[in-house]
Amino acid sequence: MQLISKPKSRFLKVQCTDCNNEQVIFGCPSTEVKCAACGKIIAEPKASKGAIKAKILEVLQ
User: Fold this and answer.
1) Which keywords annotate this record (predicted)?
2) Radius of gyration of the chain (CA)
3) Cα-to-chain-centroid distance, residue 38
């Protein structure tokens, strides 16, 4: 029996701090992620993890 490791990255449900728009983003983005409603940058790539600049509502499995 071979074990499969769990991924270290997750999808996040976040809320924009400017317009309160909710959207799902990847927790380790490779590019800037903008709010779909107002265009504010809500996530930036930083080393191996992302810098999330929005309110995290939920970590999705």
Assistant:
1) Metal-binding, Ribonucleoprotein, Ribosomal protein, Zinc, Zinc-finger
2) 13
3) 17
Residues sharing a CB contact under 8 Å with residue 11, sequence separation 6 or more, in sequence order? 24, 25, 26, 27, 59, 60
Model confidence over 36-58: pLDDT tens digits?
Answer: 999 999 999 988 788 999 999 99
Q: pTM for this structure?
A: 0.80
Q: In Å, how far are 4, 8, 60 from 49, measured between CA atoms?
A: 22, 10, 16
The total domain count for the chain is 1
> CA 24 to CA 60: how far, in whole Å?
9
Q: Is 28 marked as binding a ligand? A: no
CATH number of the domain encompassing residue 39 = 2.20.25.100
